[in-house]
Automatic annotation (TrEMBL):
Record InterPro entries: ConA-like_dom_sf (IPR013320), DUF1349 (IPR009784), UCP022704 (IPR015987)
PANTHER family: REGULATION OF ENOLASE PROTEIN 1
Name this polypeptide is given: Regulation of enolase 1
Tree of life domain: Bacteria
Organism: Bradyrhizobium manausense
Organism phylogeny: Bacteria, Pseudomonadati, Pseudomonadota, Alphaproteobacteria, Hyphomicrobiales
Length: 197
């Protein structure tokens, strides 16, 4: 499943943004005000208001996505999400924090964790890849679509199907413009952990 995927009708919006367009393999959106995904940890609150366009998966899969945006304000974020339900999901991509764009991932199993690291490349144009198979989630990123270093390896709840697709949030504002493209959803790649191709 690739190419004109955003024009397909099996994508399901969670919190559809007021402004968005899809054409061919490109999805462009502008975030609404105070949108976020978070469960309890540190802050104590639960938020399930972020924008997410989910496509149904098989039990095991690999998904890839290109993300382009200009992250400027605290917690501006966009990337990829894998979601079973409101308490079992991961979101990953770039998030603006501590004065710079950071590589960020949040894994939620009842409660959310948060892992960040400096991103070594241009944060305005990057790719994410996620593979789910045998109860394990493998998260990778790429600046060029050729080399995919590991971001995270984590257990992930087994499910016959979940949803995967583009995600964007702006907890502190509205108006982040994001372009998603190059989305593909395929059987799991089955590559060795240290194979970065």
């Amino acid at each position: 499943m690739s190419a004109a995927i955003f024009a397909r009708h099996d994508g399901v919006w969670l919190n559809q943004p007021k402004r968005w367009t899809a054409q061919g393999d490109s999805l462009e959106l502008v975030t609404d005000k105070a949108t976020d995904f978070w469960q309890k940890t540190h802050y104590g609150f639960c938020r399930d208001s972020g924008h997410f366009l989910g496509f149904p998966t098989a039990e095991a899969f690999t998904a890839e996505l290109r993300i382009q945006s200009d992250f400027r304000e605290l917690y501006d974020q966009a990337g990829i999400m894998v979601r079973i339900d409101a308490e079992h999901w991961i979101k990953a991509g770039i998030e603006f924090s501590d004065g710079r764009a950071m590589l960020s991932s949040v894994l939620t199993i009842g409660q959310s964790d948060w892992a960040t690291a400096p991103y070594e490349h241009a944060a305005g144009d990057f790719r994410m890849r996620v593979t789910v198979a045998d109860g394990v989630l493998r998260l990778q990123t790429s600046a060029d679509g050729k080399t995919w270093p590991l971001v995270r390896l984590a257990p992930f709840a087994a499910a016959r199907s979940c949803l995967v697709g583009p995600m964007a949030c702006t907890p502190e504002r509205e108006g982040l413009r994001v372009r998603f493209s190059g989305f593909s959803l395929k059987p799991p790649l089955g590559k060795d952990l240290h194979d970065l191709s």
